[in-house]
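B., you asked whether I could sanity-check this one before it goes into the benchmark set. Here's the sequence:
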Amino acid sequence: MTTHAPTADAALAATAVLPAVLPTAATVTVSDLVERPGRCLPGWTAALTALVAAAAGGWLLWRTGALPERLAGHTVLPEAPAPRDLTGLWGAVLLLGALTAFAAGGLTRGRPGKVWVLTRHGAYQGSVRETGLLWISPLLGRRRMDVSLRHWRSRAIETVDADGTPLHASVLIVWRVRDTARAAFAIDDHSRYLREQVECAVTRAVSRLPADDFRGSGPTLRDSERLGDQLTRLLAADMRPVGVEVFSAQPVRLEYAPEVAAAMRRAQVTALDARHRRAVLDDVLAAVAETVRGLTDRGLVQLDDYERKSLVRDLTVAFYTARGPAAEVPRK
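And here's what the prediction gave me:
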């Protein structure tokens, strides 16, 4: 007997057929997770079903003679007729008992701001946002999730500004869960993820600008409205894939780190002092120019360049000295 080895063409044909025969596992990504309504019934229908089933089960128990006719010497039930088929009666009792347990076991309450996330064997089966008395199949797993508007104030986050100066920043976040499917299954803990993303967003936003600009009037982190808008945009973009909606992220505290706070206060006082002196000098020069122009326009004096410079110098010293304590920056 001769055995023929499979040819190369046969092997290629078998390889091509295998993908069509073998089932392909479905890959679920975050983009596939979208909240959808879960199945539920009004609670009164389940309650009514449970009551009717319980009453019918009690009647069948009475027919089987399992219920006592007398209690504490008093007749509470009429005499039951002789049953013909106890097996059928007990089967009906068990069936009605199971129906009662199934109907009563699914009763639950929906609350405003709370959502029931339903699962079966780990697979998402929908979300129930209805309120009041509800019936949800007891064969489904249920997980309550808070979708109300919440706020959270962060601790002091250590970061640095555009100049590398250490800062401590705290922000107030207003947020809520918008897509319960993504919040429940796209991330392990959306609340912890939000806290970590707040630190990342604060670090990115604060590092774009200096905390103070002592040498000019450029944009700084003291513009809390601009900083809050940047934080809100960054956090909203980071939290959208996990079903969390960020309404606002506003800085509530921004200060220098303790190790540089004293030095930065001295730099701030020095800058304020220089700015104040520059403003005083501008006022003095304006007054001197007005005085010299008034004298020459009225023809009171005739000055050449040397005399004009001398007059301007003397008037500047006089006016600046007359300011006295006004030229000094008040210090605490």
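One thing to flag: Residues 1-28 have pLDDT under 50 and may be disordered. Otherwise nothing jumped out at me.
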